[in-house]
Hints:
Helices cover 11% and strands 27% of the residues. The protein is an alpha+beta fold.
Amino acid sequence: MKKTTSCPPPDFKSQDWTALEPAQRVWVCLDNGWSFTGLVETKTDASDAIWVIHDDLIRTRQVFCHAEGILILPFDQVRDEREPDASSLDWPSFRQSGERHFKGETA
């Protein structure tokens, strides 16, 4: 039986995607626990919506709002080269790491 988790947790705050750029490879964790990698296609001027093209054969294009509980981070920020298992993430540490990245701070 597959374990399901809430990804991200209910207290997740809206993301700041201003540091993400078109053609940047990202890791996306949906609120249903599924995750995938893709490329940023474009985003709104205010960075409150972002279009991501999935890294798959179909190259699905999907739009996300910064307030819908979707975690999007630069792929190079994810420590492991394979997609992380969202159920095993330490969300407070992972979120802090993401916030430091978006503010331009280093670990």
